[in-house]
Specification:
- The protein has 1 helix and 10 strands.
- The strands form 2 sheets. The chain has a 5-stranded mixed sheet with strand order 1-3-10-5-8, with no helix packed on it. It has a 5-stranded mixed sheet with strand order 2-4-9-6-7, with no helix packed on it.
- It is α+β, with helices and mostly antiparallel strands and 156 residues long.
- It is globular and about 45 Å long.
- β6 and β7 form a beta hairpin.
- Calcium ion (CA) binds next to β4.
- The site of calcium ion (CA) has 6 residues, from β4.
- Keywords: Signal.
C-alpha cells in the first residue's frame, strides 16, 4: 500500500514538473499571432495584391506554387514607427526574396535571402499604403513545380 501511495505521489510530482516546463516554454516562445492572413490568387501584381493588417504579431501564410509565382500583399501602416518584417520557409533548395514597396511602386527594401529566412526593419508612416512581395529568387533546375510554403511575420 505504501508503495502505491509513493508511486502516485511521484506521478503527481512528475506531472506538475511537466506542467511547469510547458508553461515556461509558452512564455519563452510568445509567438502568438493576432491574426493570420493568406494569399489569394491571383495576387501576382500590385492591383491584385492580397490585403492584410500590419498589427504587431500578425502573420501571413502563403505558398509560392512555382518559379513564376509572385505574391503581393497590400497594407496601410496602422501607426508610424519601425516595423520588422521577416519571412521563414522550410526548403533549403530555394531562396526567396522579400521586397517592400511604397504606394508609388518604388522599392523601399529588397532582400534576397541566402538561407532559410530573412528579416529587415523599416520606418513606415501611419496611413500610407505599402506593398510586401515575395517570390522565388533561386531554385535548382527541376524543382520548378515544387510549391514553397512560407510565413511572413510583422512586428512593430
Ligand atoms: Ca501569387
Amino acid at each position: 500500500m505504501k508503495k502505491v501511495v509513493f508511486s502516485l505521489l511521484s506521478l503527481a510530482l512528475a506531472s506538475s514538473v511537466a506542467v511547469v516546463t510547458s508553461a515556461k516554454e509558452n512564455t519563452a516562445n510568445e509567438i502568438k499571432p493576432m491574426a493570420i492572413y493568406y494569399d489569394y490568387e491571383p495576387n501576382n501584381y500590385f492591383d491584385t495584391a492580397s490585403p492584410f493588417v500590419a498589427y504587431n504579431g500578425n502573420q501571413i501564410n502563403g505558398t509560392l506554387s512555382d518559379n513564376m509565382d509572385e505574391d503581393f500583399y497590400v497594407f496601410t501602416a496602422p501607426s508610424s514607427g519601425y516595423y520588422d518584417f521577416s519571412i521563414a520557409y522550410n526548403n533549403s533548395r530555394v531562396k526567396l526574396s522579400l521586397i517592400l514597396w511604397d504606394k508609388n511602386y518604388d522599392d523601399i527594401r529588397i532582400v534576397h535571402d541566402t538561407g532559410n529566412g530573412v528579416s529587415f526593419t523599416e520606418y513606415l508612416t501611419k496611413g500610407e499604403k505599402y506593398y510586401l512581395y515575395t517570390s522565388v529568387k533561386t531554385r535548382p533546375v527541376g524543382d520548378s513545380n515544387i510549391p514553397v510554403p512560407y510565413s511572413i511575420y510583422v512586428y512593430n
